[in-house]
Amino acid sequence: MNTDAQLETDLRAEGVRVTRQRLAILHVLRSAADHPRAEDILARAKEQDPSVSQATVYRTLAMLEKAGTVLKNEFDGAGARYELAGGAHHDHLIDLDTGEVIEFHSQKIERLQAEIAAELGYDIEWHRLELYGRRPKAR
Amino acid sequence: MNTDAQLETDLRAEGVRVTRQRLAILHVLRSAADHPRAEDILARAKEQDPSVSQATVYRTLAMLEKAGTVLKNEFDGAGARYELAGGAHHDHLIDLDTGEVIEFHSQKIERLQAEIAAELGYDIEWHRLELYGRRPKAR
DNA sequence: ATGATAATGAGAACGATTTGCGAAAAGTCA
DNA sequence: TGACTTTTCGCAAATCGTTCTCATTATCAT
After folding, report:
1. Do the Cβ atoms of A24 and A39 come closer than 8 Å?
2. Which of A59, A62, B93, B122 is 20 to 30 Å from B24 at the Cα level?
3. Is the pLDDT at B1 greater than 60, yes or no?
4. Does residue B139 have a pLDDT over 60?
5. Closest partner CB to A120 (pick from B104, B116, B124)
6. Residues forming beta bridges with residue A47, ordered by sequence position
7. Residue B57, SS3 per DSSP
8. E strands, chain A, where?
9. Which residues of A fall below an 8 Å CB-CB distance to B?
10. Closest Cα in chain A, distance from residue B139 (Å)
């Protein structure tokens, strides 16, 4: 698990400065149960530290993404959605009615993807698999 | 196969007016071997009819997408890329070095996706599977 | 504490896409 | 074909999410 202190240590290890704003943003990410947008992250971070600005949210997310600490998901519709990395790789199922994001993983699909790419003469660098669906209406 | 005349007939069937601009855009899509961006489509359509404007390209693509005639792909990086629908469903492999887009299809993967969604209690409305890779350097 | 330097906030700038609006075509019917 | 109605068009301004500029502030090694 990642504790806030743990994350702070990681930041220092990256050789970047530990600022109030960055800690606020990391805390938001760590305590998020959903996959918040930059806008949401800004709002939540401001609760903890009103001085956090939009620019800093984007700058911090970009740096954390480069560092591999956060994952940026560009689902359809408006705006990227973020989550802390650290867990196992997974793909996403987006509920078209609520916007809720469900994580899942299939070793079989991963294997098939690699096979297909190999047949086409490619090495996969990364991939994106998103299912968009609805919960069938109870009848 | 879709001939230009065929596409025109489809347009009329949709109850929309057949304009020079729309025909130019459809022709561009039909003769495109790649997955052009709105910008490319505008440039190519202008060769055939200089009066085509950017706004019309976007408006036309939006209407064709809604009509199911074209597919809009939002790969990573800047701008959506379009292709004529009409063929069989397929997913994409994007060459990270050249930007080239390769189409592929796997019945197995499709089936697995449906199974996974079903287990989670969902019906898939649509999905997006993109592989991003490179051709291994010859040694 | 102090200074070198990185990070910040505010707002302007950006790129892709969308929209409002008056002018110009397309379709319709006589 | 001409007159009329409605859609579509081009242009420019507006949006939206995101990035950048720059003067100011904060971090951290000393």
Report:
1. no
2. B93
3. no
4. no
5. B104
6. none
7. helix
8. 70-73, 81-84, 91-95, 101-104, 123-134
9. 74, 76, 93, 95-96, 102, 104, 106, 108-109, 112-113, 116-117, 120-136
10. 14
A56 vs A26, A30, A53, B31, CA distance in Å? 12, 17, 5, 45
Q: Whole-number Å distance, CA B55 to C1' D4?
A: 27
Residue type, B91: D
> Which residue is closest to A105 within chain B, CA to CA?
B116
- Give the pLDDT score at B76: 83
Find, among B30, B34, B15, B25, the residue nearest to B57 by Cα: B25
A35 pLDDT above the threshold of 60:
yes
Other CB atoms within 10 A of residue B99 CB = 12
> Token pair for residue B125?
């409305």
Tokens representing A2 are: 């990642």
